[in-house]
Target: DUF1214 domain-containing protein
Amino acid sequence: MTTDDNDRIRAAWRSFTDLNEELLELALADGELDDGSAATLLARLVGHIQYSGLLLNSDPARPTLINTQYSPWNWGHSNPDTLYLSARIDDAHDYRVSGTLGSVAQTTFGVYTGKDDQGTSVKVLAEDLAIAEDGSFEIIFGREPRGTNWFELPPGADSFCAYQTYGDWDRQRKGTIRIECLGDVPAAAPQSVSAAIDAFTTHLTDSRDLFTIWVNDIPARVFGALPKNFAIPPMQPPSAMAGAWFVPIAWELAEGQAMVIEYEIPDGSPYVGICLTDRWSAMIDIETRQTSLNLGQSDVVGGRVRILLSTEDFGVPNWLDARGYRGGVVTWRASTPNQPAAPTVTVIGTDEIDRYFDPSQRLTAAERAAAMVKRHAHFAERNTP
Model:
């Protein structure tokens, strides 16, 4: 290695450290942070570095599925009930996705262009595929028709994602999914120092863009424009999984306030869930706190679910744990072919909780702790390869 190579490597690393200083300042410029957002910021930055490192080492000609929810990076209003498996691809190759479906409530697949709400996609529901009797399947994403389950690979395609959504954490199990590049792929050659530095420099630009999208652009342009404490009609963003309807609710509570969210279960829906995300579109402590609820975890009365969002635990079973936060976004999801009714949102005083939730139906601290132990065990099993 030459002296010039040493200097270029040092310069690239300085650019990396400068970038992370820039990203830190971008996050801190988001205004006065509440305790929850401030406490997670350093971990979010490290998670972004980890996730970006996975992307730096990915190769569309040799795609590898990574669990993008398990990474400390989980911006993008992910769903705690969904196991996300993603791989980097491109539009110069054809791809075969195969495996065996599990027993989760819904499995969907997608090929995407772009990383934000302006991207395009090709989405596939597992129930629309030709599936073998043993549950095995094969999908081709390619440029020319091929096989039974063929879908056209769009120009500019850069990512593949498989979504396995749990409706019952106790009984349902994930499937097995693989992806491979079709056609002749030459053996990988050693990378030169110059090529490695060039790739790293390009990676820094991608890292900045990805961080900025989820920490600044979309929160400001999309969620920042939402009326506070109000449920808009359900929508289907281009980047969402197939068949899913979303209602993002920008919430903000003063001291002594709580929020009641009530929704009707859509007819025939295989999945309905709700979860908290912070101001940067990241899920909040999903493994250790009750910051999400699906139907299997909720008390249902007459086809309706009533949930309490509060910054204190009042023992309500259907509770979304917002401790440490003054605001954020709570996202309601439903998988259904037709647009469902929007949830209703009511801000109340904490002294009014007994009017909405039966005081005799409250959990003790020990019961809540036991539920959290069970919650963590589920994620440990789900995230084990």
